[in-house]
Amino acid sequence: MTAASPAPVPLPRGESAPAASAGGRRSLAAALLLGALGAAVVLLASGRTWAEGAAAVPGGAFPLAVEGQDVTGAPAALAVVGLAALVAVFAVRRAGRLLVAGLLALSGAGAAVTALLGASGGTALDEKAAKMTGDAAATAGSLTHTAWPYATAVGGLLILVAGLLALWCGRGWPSMSGRYERDGSPRARRAPAAPDPDRPEDLWKALDRGEDPTRDV
């Protein structure tokens, strides 16, 4: 006769499996790291030189260079929005968390797309050539491009991945708001300390409250 195998012990209600909680912590840490790193890369790379060229002037050529902020300010602005959304993910719950996570993903996608669209920097160089030469028809020649626009796009993609993680795994992440919410139960009032007979001021205070200071003596 074979012995019956013991029945599996169910987990208590409200207690998740260790593997699930560990996976939630890993996805949370990954989203925080990717989002913060991506925003830092976008803000750094958008302040670097994206394109260089030269404007023809009498007697030679005038060198020109434009930074990412001169080409387009959208990636840096969207990176700031992404940072705000990354923090807000932990301040909201349920549908609000999904909306903020979607905003985080869209911010990253927008930063990447706008960086790639402005990678050539030709329009910004032409505008700078017209400004430096005083000739509205002046254009920049001998254009060269750097890798910073593509670094900006990579930073935007990191923010996008952080937003997708928040959309996929954010339901199991903790929320900051729960730590500061009150449970609604009334607080127990502390009974006033018994007056000290050796301290006259305590006796007077007890009399002001309508108490008999000699009842416990």
UniProtKB/TrEMBL annotation:
Q: Where are the transmembrane segments?
A: 28-51, 71-91, 98-119, 147-169
Query: Which residue intervals make up region (Disordered)?
Result: 179-217
Composition bias, Basic and acidic residues: 196-217
Task: Tell whether Cell membrane is among the UniProt keywords.
Answer: no
The record ties this protein, via InterPro entries, to: Trp_biosyn_TM_oprn/chp (IPR019051), Trp_synth-assoc_CHP (IPR011746)
Record keywords: Endoplasmic reticulum included?
Answer: no
Q: Which domain of life is it from?
A: Bacteria
Keywords (alphabetical) are:
Membrane, Transmembrane, Transmembrane helix
Q: What is this protein identified as?
A: TIGR02234 family membrane protein
- What organism, scientifically named, is this protein from? Streptomyces albidochromogenes
